[in-house]
From TrEMBL:
It is a multi-pass membrane protein. The keyword Metal-binding applies. The chain crosses the membrane at residues 12-28, 48-69, 90-112, 142-163. InterPro entries: Cyt_b561_bac/Ni-Hgenase (IPR011577), Cytochrome_b561_oxidase (IPR052168), Di-haem_cyt_TM (IPR016174). The keyword Ribonucleoprotein does not apply. It is found in: Cell membrane. This is Cytochrome b. It comes from Pseudomonas spirodelae.
Length: 174
């Protein structure tokens, strides 16, 4: 279950792939801009956006705590690109944390309240809070950044697997 210098453990892999699936689902929201969301994705998956985002906020917290507890034994990047790899992972973690936080700012700043998986956690107020709205305005640009980081992350993993033919992808794939 624990990570080792050679590979990520079961908990790290479960968190990684569960979040990858949920983030992929969340990024489908970008397709909501096509035809004003009047299509299957906009009508079926997008209504879950706030609930899945809230779940991701919890999961990123768990993932950060787990990563900190495993930091001494995790696989470490080596070579001249190691600083870039660390920076890329840092940006991924930061954007995964900031996405749901700025989403909360949108919801609360506009007085929408917060309803997660059908449970009203914070009541609608209808009151606008300018500073929360300002922070919430970062949500959409962060989504594009996250998309770019995810594409880069996948591209790097595939590059390692198919071009460099090393075990980088296998460390997380199981």
């Amino acid at each position: 279950m624990n990570d080792s210098a050679q590979r990520y453990g079961g908990i790290s892999r479960l968190l990684h792939w569960a979040m990858a699936l949920l983030i992929g689902w969340q990024l489908l929201k970008l397709g909501d801009r096509i035809n004003d969301g009047e299509h299957w994705i906009g009508q079926t998956l997008v209504p879950w956006h706030v609930s899945i985002g809230s779940l991701l906020l919890i999961l990123i917290g768990v993932r950060l705590l787990w990563a900190l507890s495993q930091r001494q034994q995790r696989p470490q990047p080596v070579g001249p690109t190691a600083p870039l790899v660390k920076a890329g992972h840092g940006l991924l973690y930061a954007s995964m944390l900031l996405m749901p936080l700025t989403g909360l700012c949108v919801m609360l700043g506009n007085g929408y309240g917060l309803k997660v998986f059908g449970v009203q956690l914070l009541a609608k107020t209808g009151l606008k809070t300018d500073w929360l709205i300002s922070l919430g305005n970062l949500h959409s640009p962060l989504a594009w950044l996250l998309l770019a980081l995810v594409v880069g992350h996948i591209g790097a993993a595939l590059f390692h697997h198919f071009v460099k033919k090393d075990d980088t992808l296998k460390r997380m794939a199981g």
